[in-house]
Structure prediction request, 247 residues.
Amino acid sequence: MSRGSRYQRIGPEAYRAWRATSLGRVTEAIERRLVLELTGKLGGRCMLDAGCGDGALLRAAARRGARAVGLDADARMLAAARARLAGARLDAGLVRGRIEQLPFREAAFDVVVAVTVLCFVPDAAQAIREMARVLRPGGRLVIGELGRCSAWAVIRHVRGWLGSPTWRRARFRSAAELSALAESAGLAVAEMRGAVYYPPIGWLARRMVRLDPRLGRLTTCGAGFIALAAHRPGAATRIAPPSSAGP
Prediction:
């Protein structure tokens, strides 16, 4: 996940600590499975993970055959992602940059993914316009965001009120708000799903893990995580591998 300079950046050590808990492992597995379901088949497709963090999702996508590129603004995250990819013999690369100004040409990717990034970006509309720009006609955008109406959001708001700079400035959105952002960028929303319907309690997460996907197909109300899939209208075109727009 990319964190803009206006926010306290969450380093790789926070990811490691989160995954060391049973709640973190269960929750991240649910979120990643949902995002990868919405991307569809990735074999041979060019995919951008915008705000790739320490590269966990990037590696998972590359293992499914994607020609994957990860972008993040934080050099520490890119270093952690590089270490995760080292020796894996996967078709994956890393680029430092900001989601509001992607360093790629137009229509460079078949799939663009951004997971828990927009809530930390001051100009989310610009970020989505940039992701739509680098998406080929017929290509798919998948956005995963922290849901606004959930126990998780309440707890994070309280942490913000108590002084956490990360959560004080974060903005959580509803499914309708995410859909409006995508449509304002000229994208056609295809699907909206929820996940993480339990409060942040480890034993409850383990009990609800099987029920969670069923709830996600019924409603996004109460979901701690909301995922949207949209596509850029137009006929699919054959494109070359992505490259930086700079010299």
About this structure: DSSP finds ten helices and seven strands in the chain. The longest strand covers residues 135-146. The beta strands are 46-50, 67-72, 92-96, 109-115, 135-146, 188-195, 225-231. The longest helix spans residues 22-39.
